[in-house]
Amino acid sequence: MQSAVSMIMTNRVSINRLSTSRRSLGRKIGAVIGKAEPFRTSGGRAALFILGLLLTAHCLLLTARAQPGMPQPNSPLYGGGSQAGQTSTGLPPALKNVGLDQRLNDRVPLDAVFKDEQGREVRLGQFFGSKPVVLSLVYYNCPMLCTQVLNGMLGSFKQVAFNIGDQFEVVTVSFDPRETPQLAAAKKDTYVKAYNRPGVDAGWHFLTGDEANIKRLTEAVGFRYFWDEQTKQFGHASGIMVITPEGKIANYFYGISYSPKDLRLALVESSQNKIGSPVDALMLYCYHYDPSTGKYGAVVMNIVRLAGLVTIVLMVGLLLVLRKRGASIRGSSPTVREGLG
Question: Which residues, 6+ apart, have CB-to-CB distance to 87 below 8 Å?
Fold first, then answer.
């Protein structure tokens, strides 16, 4: 009996303690709600808005720190040499001498002499000086790959607002010393008609040359190729280069398809912002050329900095608006203030 009474008393004490805890929790919640009441005013909403902006900027910063690195190229035809620990690629021995090695910031031989489509001798430097140049190395009798390179260039050029001959030049050079200006003229006629914009005839140049000058140019840009006697064809890599008006190699784009966005940014950057718009300049702040991929990639920290700057501008603008509104409320009559409250 005594144990039962003791148990009942213990339960009553526990119930009393629980009730006390609930009342205490209720008082605390009421206090928090009471303190949160000012946030229903315009000033409180502004503070919450600013807090949200700061939280967004903080999340962007954490995202930037968590970004993975850019992928590295694994093809032996492009970029640098093989990395330690890599397994064999299984390429035929002949193709080990084929590739497109980056020579960024090196100069092309502007004094090299070639022939244009009319058979006239021209110096490579004639096409430089005031505009960036897109350079491609092909041979005009190529049965497949070179045509795909030229088609890829054409497709990209047609999607870029810049016009060949106005904002940039294009120089296509045959690396086969046996090819003639007549072949170059026929190839030019095909692509000039397909591009179909004014001025292209004077801006896209198809050249041929002798072995010595071809070798100077191909070695300068890192273009490696070989003649396959069995198939009577050249083995070569595919890609194009963007050269500054001074003749320095600025960008490599690999393969047979070239991003119009990347090409536009490369032309703007190579011209030192002499062509393009303020939007292009802003894009170049947020995107940089990555030699390891041959593409323009996002610079996350620059994007975060830009987002932070926009946040600060919005905060300052909001504070000025609220300050002006507060001054107008203080200058109004008591009746108006009560109505606004």
Answer: none
pTM score: 0.61
CB under 8 Å to 63, separation ≥6 — which residues? 300
Distance CA 246, CA 92 (A): 38
- Which tokens in the block code for residue 32? 């928090």
CA distances from 165 to 35, 162, 245 (A): 68, 9, 13
Closest CA to 226 of 242, 241, 210, 237: 237
C-beta separation of 168 from 162 below 8 A: yes
Q: Give 219-222's long-range contacts (Cβ < 8 A, gap of 24+).
A: 220/103, 220/106, 220/107, 220/108, 220/109, 220/249, 221/100, 221/103, 221/106, 221/108, 221/135, 221/137, 221/249, 222/99, 222/100, 222/101, 222/102, 222/103
Query: C-alpha 189: how far from its chain's center?
Result: 33
User: Chain-centre distance of CA 281, in angstroms?
Assistant: 12
**Per-residue pLDDT tens for 96-114?**
778 999 999 999 999 999 9
For 213, the token pair is: 């000058």
State the angle between helix axes of 260-270 and 278-286 in degrees (0 to 180), rounded to the nearest 10.
Answer: 100
